[in-house]
Amino acid sequence: MMPSDRDRWVGQRLAVARKAAGLTVRQLADRLGWPDHSRLTSYETGRRTTSVVTLIEIARALGQAPAALLVESPEEAEIIAQVAGNRERAQQLSYLIHLLGEDEPAPPEEA
């Protein structure tokens, strides 16, 4: 079966996260307890579809929230890292985003 664009995209995200953590494929596979690093290589190249369970395992091994592995930019990943598991911070950020989306009040009319 040909790898899908989605599989390749997820694989790229995994590779970026692994490299950002300063790990080789073999080192991350060792952290995961996988005897062979070719499984991880297959995920990173998109030759193999990554299940949600596997994505969670990889995220934990990298010390990241799984959702942080599925966004394009480091800024998005940083926001996820800041709110994952922190309900109060998530609510604060949600409120700020809501405020940013509101129209600015019209300036008072001059007499």
Account of the 3D structure:
- This protein has 111 residues and is mainly α.
- It is built from 6 helices and no strands.
- α2 crosses α3 (38-44).
- The radius of gyration is 19 Å and the shape is elongated.
> Major sheet, described briefly?
none
Portion in helices? 55-70%
**So how many helices?**
6
- The helix/strand series, from N terminus to C terminus, equals HHHHHH
User: Which outline best applies?
Assistant: elongated
Structural class: mainly alpha
Mean pLDDT: 89
What fraction strand? under 5%
Low-pLDDT sequence parts: none
Q: What Rg is obtained from the alpha carbons, in whole angstroms?
A: 19 Å
Counted beta strands? 0
- What gap, in angstroms, lies between the N and C termini? 72 Å
Q: Which terms would index this structure?
A:
111 residues; 60% helix; 6 helices; mainly alpha
Topology:
Elements: H1 5-20, H2 25-32, H3 38-44, H4 52-62, H5 74-83, H6 87-101
Helix pairs in contact: 2-3
Quick recap of the structure?
With 111 residues, the protein is mainly alpha-helical.
